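Inputs:
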Amino acid sequence: MSTAPHTASRPVPEAPAATVRTTGLHVRHRRTVALDSVDLDFGPGVHGLLGPNGAGKTSLIRVLATVAEPSGGRVEILGHDTRDHRRRGEVRRHLGYLPQDFGYYPGFTVREFVAYVAWLKEMPADRVPAAVERAVARVGLADRVDTKVRRLSGGMIRRVGIAQAVVNDPRVLLLDEPTAGLDPEQRVEFRELLRELGASSTVIVSTHLVEDVAAACTEVTLVDAGRVAYRGTPLALAALGESAGGPGDHPIERGYTAALRAHRAPEARAGRPSASEGAAR
Amino acid sequence: MTHGFLLYARARTVPRTVLVLVATAALAVLGARNLNAYLDPTRQVPVVALAPLFAAAVIGTSLHSASEELDRTAVRPWWRRRLVHLLALTGCAALLLAATVLGPSSPFGPSAMIRNTLGCTGLTAGAVAVLGTRLSWLPVFGYVSAVYVGSASARGTLVPVWAWPVQPAGQHVAWVTAVVLLVAGTALYVVRGARPEGRRD
Amino acid sequence: MTLLTERAPGKRGTSPRPPRARHPLRAEAVRGFAPWAGAAMTLTLVVALAAKSEQWQGGWTETRDHVHTAAMLLGVPLALAAGCWQGGRERRRGTGELLATVVRGRTAAFLASALPVALWLVAGYAVATALALLATWYCAMGDRPHPGTPLGDAVVLASTALTGHLVGRLVAWRLAAPLLAAAGYVVLGVVGYGDRGSAGHLSPFVDHPLDSAPVWWQPLAMVAWTGGLTAAAVLAYTARRRAVALLPLVAAVAAGTLLVQTGDGLWRTDPLARRQVCDTSTTPQICVNARYRNLLPQITGALSGMTGRLEGVENLPVRFEDRQGRPGPDEVELPMITPIGWSVVRGRLTDPEEYAWAAGMTLQGRGECDEVAPRVAAADDAVEYYLAPSPLRRQFDEQYARGSAAERAKLGERLAARERLASLGEEERRAWLSAYFATRSECGRNGVPAL
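Outputs:
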């Protein structure tokens, strides 16, 4: 990826190596193609994954999370090929994942649930209690740490999901619509957390909320119909929106619609300079 | 109206439930054939006690609604549908199971089968209202199993009241208990509906 | 760290709690469904056993058999259903997605959610078994506890819980749990009580005669058989290298072959049941099966009136015996102790008087005669009355007194005979009784001395 200037307050390290790389990634669900030869790489920072429903965002996140197997192509995370099951354990040790449909055990307390996930991630037992405290504090649930999950509201449960994803201080964090169900104040706080996490690790956030992207992401990847439609910084996307004049109420929103239209217009695709390498083909 | 009713039946997976009930009856026939009940009518007790139990469990879990939040906003009164739904399935199960033990008159014949189906379904319907459909089979399962195991050595005037599933057909008190259970359970379910469940199936 | 932590500083400040260093798996063990499953197991078994407590309390063999029957016929279906329910948890809770990304192997994750239920079920079973053993211990009649079968059953229960868990993972049907339980109950019942040949010995529950006991390695073979099958199934489902499952499968097949090959040889008569303990100070001597040796003083006491009156009398059988099979030529059978729950309950004779009467009747030995001459019947009645009258004797007499003329005459005859036997002198009576017992077990009238 490029080391473009970004809107977040913190600078990313210079020229970081790509921690996540996909080459010619194909994902098929029965007969429908979810991802079609996607080449992407992500380095440290916060990466927004935008796109219409059914574009393949969740498929991409699931493949990166090693939940789903790609039907073709290569996924490399932290230098390991995820098809190699001996390496997969090493990859997963440094992976955090919040599924779109986050399931939990209602009878567990927040502390127990997060500790359980930590155990499943093979964290050393002596480090687990402190890591749990820290993760729970990071999502602002410190005062609810011994409350059973079933007593929490929807937004709090979402935060429990984020806490379990960050409990092992992942180097690659995959969040599928993490802000769904959070109120505006919580989202503001969540973006702050994202920026903090993005300083050291690779955070990939799938979302529909362009404000989140504008505020917290260092880079935007727009996916449409299984292909990468656009890659660039939020600023560049906003600028595209201003110049191309797509419909929308927010600069990024306008950029989003403009980029989608440009990607969908077949004749325009070949010569567009702002579309990244993944979109070409 | 008819169309709506058909859609309702499909929404509640009534066709599949009826199929499972038919399968239950088929199993009961197999079981009854193998017991050589002509030697001793009490040999038929396992079938007469367990088949209605399973039919009731099938009916209980089929009272599940996949859209309970939505259902509560409906304009049509639910209680009538619930009543018809429950009674139709109960009647269907009772007839099917009664047919499985047709034959030479036996104290554990169709009459006992119908009684047990009614009683077990009543218990299950009550459990649906209290526990939700997912676990509705548990109380009736525990109760009938306990009676089945424990009543063998029990003596006393109250035995027909609580051990109704294993009484011969002539025992009127057992019928009374079963009907009371049916009425109470049905009323509870019809008035309150199934208890809302957790988020997922 | 972030501003998020600033939201609730007050609360944490006032009650500083050190982070508890509890193992993450503790939550799996104490939260949710598992403890309830264990409690249900205890409750089911305790209720089932308590309902029939008269029939096993006091006898170690009976206790073993009843606990085994309850644990297999009720516990196994319960364990199947509970395991199946727990197995459907990830589907109900939607945590499958999350679990797919964990570092731990599939087997570890599977066991983390399946073992708590299995262990709680075993704990519930252990509590019920311990209660039953305690209940027997305080009124034990001899013999000793038999630990093999209960220990084997515990493993069988754990295996069935894991099997149920596996089914719950694989089958997404609301009725899977009750259906599995019903199927388990029916299959165990049919195989256990029906005659299914040697293959029936593969079932963890096989009905067997009371005085037989499984050979010592039968529980071990059963553990290898059920545990091996379960381990093979679990490994085939969870392990990445499926071939690993072959190892337990081979063990299971070997154990299963052993069980089938041995067949009925798996059960042999308890050696203890062939022995008896005797009180030789009485006439006749009193012997009790070694399994119920602690009953000997009670039985001797119950029969003491009779044996006292028989002192010096000749032609009596040498002893009351209590072993399998027919008594020897000089022996009579001790009135039945087994199956316990009738004449013996919780290590006590329920009715010593009636027991003594039954013993007296076996001494006369005319129970199998079709018809007895009136004179003989009167003599029998007098001896019966003298030795150990039935507790119901007065009732019978009153019934006769209210009956027809023939019955009243019969009663008069009997009362006279009793009177005459009572009025005889010590020596005279001894001689008469010796002559009388010379004819015991004979149905004809010849030889029975007149009274």
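Remarks. Strands of chain C lie at 212-214, 267-269, 276-279, 285-289, 319-321, 331-333, 344-345, 348-349. Chain C touches chain B at residues 44, 47-48, 51-52, 73-74, 91-94, 172, 174-175, 177-179, 181-182, 185-186, 189 (CB under 8 Å).
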